chorismate mutase (Gemmatimonas phototrophica), 388 residues
Amino acid sequence: MTPDAADSAAPPSAAPRPLAVVRAMIDALDRDLMQILARRMALVAEVAAYKRQHGIKIRDAQREQEVLRDRHERALELGLPAGEIESIFRVLLRSSRDHQAALRAEVPASETPYTISIIGGHGKIGRLLARLFGDLGHRLLIVDTDTTLEAAEAAAASDVTVISVPIDRTEEVIRAVGPHVRPDALLMDVTSIKSAPMEAMLASTTGSVVGTHPMFGPNVHTLQGQRVVVCRGRGDRWADWVTHSFTARGLVITETTAQQHDRAMSVVQVLTHFQTQVQGLTLARLGVPLAETLPFTSPAYLLELYVTARHFAQDPGLYGPIEMRNPRSSDVTAAFGTAVQELAQVIAGGDQAAFTRLFEEVRAFFGDFTAEALVQSSFLIDRIVERS
Ligand SMILES: C=C(O[C@@H]1C=C(C(=O)O)C=C[C@H]1O)C(=O)O
């Protein structure tokens, strides 16, 4: 035991001190802890300045592994729950990276400040992009249905024009704005489908073109580690600038073609959202009130419920077009229907052997991923239980 810890521990034989006294001591210790966190963040800011000066990336995975291993060992030595302490340090590392990104650690001091128009800049994703580019030191022109600034004049005055409008309107806005983008400038979009908007962008401007799709919504707490898909259309210099700007703010990039993106989204978005909607619709129609089930939640049911209810807390105008405009949606929903019927028949027939065969078929599809899934979903369950 360290001398400090000895100071706060009660003598072994004494009766426990009054609750109010011990709580006041805990408050004081927590304040010390926060002072120490503030001191850690001040050091992190110094690291950020050094990295910016020397062109070093914010994230150092090896150093993070060393930090986590060391804190894990020390937790064991101190008799603290090592897994929980590791979780605390993971959160610390993430907020440390976020702090460095906000301090522009990955933005070269020589970075040119550009003029960037966000068409749809008052929408949720538009605001997020405005903050992201603003944090990186660029000048912003915001255009939306309630601004006097018009998209065409903003685009003509900009180095970068970002189309961030609802999917249903994306192509028409691209066609209206594209011709005003200068040949040396960039036209980019952030739509959840990529083939049609990319074609529209390439056809409507002679300038550079980059298609992007942020794989996260506006409600995320931090951009650190969130993913953006980037599709190069025309002009590598601007495409490099886009990927660099995103990684500088902590985002992770997947570069691909518009066709590959749309194929992946038929599973990642269309299937996922569709099954969530089927789950929601079934729950709503089964006639078992939600409240009646809540005192019986298992971890799997609670996780599923949060995912489903989260979906229905959002905008149908966003999800409808994602599912209706993907070229492969009908294949996905047909395969879903087939799977539902097959499984329902097996269950109705009480055929355990057939049930096991289907189970094994899916297990083989997931392969080693099942092990990772167990670890990660257990982590999520722990976190949810911790907050309930
Ligand atoms: C502070 C640094 O940057 C990041 C944050 C770390 C931390 O907070 O300890 C460790 C490694 C980096 O991913 C660093 O490189 O030391």
Notes: The mean pLDDT is 93.
